[in-house]
Amino acid sequence: MLRLAFVAARSSRAASTSIKKVVSPDSGTVTMTDRCVERIHHQNSIDDSQPILRLKVVTGGCLGGKYEFVWENTIQEDDVHFEKDGARLVINKNLMGMLSGSLIDFQEQMKAKTFQVMKPDDDSYQTCSCGSSVQLG
Predict the structure, then answer these.
(1) Which of 34, 50, 57, 105 is deepest in the core (most CB within 10 A)?
(2) pLDDT one-digit tens code per residue, 28-74
(3) Strand partners, 15
(4) How far apart are the first and last CA of the chain?
(5) Facing residues of 14 across strands?
(6) pLDDT one-digit tens code per residue, 77-116
(7) Residue 125: strand, helix, or coil
(8) Global pTM?
(9) Across 2-119, where does the E strand assignment appear?
(10) CA neighbours within 13 Å on the CB side: how many for 46?
(11) Residues in a beta bridge with 62
C-alpha cells in the first residue's frame, strides 16, 4: 500500500486538474487499499466525467456521525487531495484531524458494496459494527 500525505487546494479546480502527490511526516495521511483504487477506476471507466470520490462525515448514525462517500466532479478550495495510481479521493481539510491515519477500503458483501473507513492503528477510535457510523466530538 502507498501512503500519501495531503495537499490543501490553493483554488477551486475542475476534476481534470492533476493532483500532486506529497509525502511528509508532518502531514496527515489517508491510505487507499488496492480494492478502493480498483473501485474508483471502475467508476471512472463507466463515467466519462471521471468523478472524484469524496469522503464526508454527516450527522446521523448510531454514534452521532456517519461516513458518506459521494462521487463529484469538482474540487473545493478547502479540500485535501489524495491520489494512488490515478484514483482520486478528496476530504474537507476540517475532517483531517478525525480521519488522519485512516484506511479507506471497498467491501463487497452479499447485501452491499460499499467504501469503508478503518483506523487500524488507533485503539481509541470508536465506530460501530456497521462500519459507517463514527463518534463525533
Answers:
(1) 57
(2) 789 999 999 999 999 999 999 999 999 998 887 666 788 899 999 98
(3) none
(4) 30
(5) 74
(6) 999 999 999 999 999 999 998 888 899 999 998 888 999 9
(7) coil
(8) 0.71
(9) 3-5, 7-8, 13-14, 29-32, 52-59, 64-72, 74-75, 79-84, 87-92, 102-108, 113-118
(10) 6
(11) none
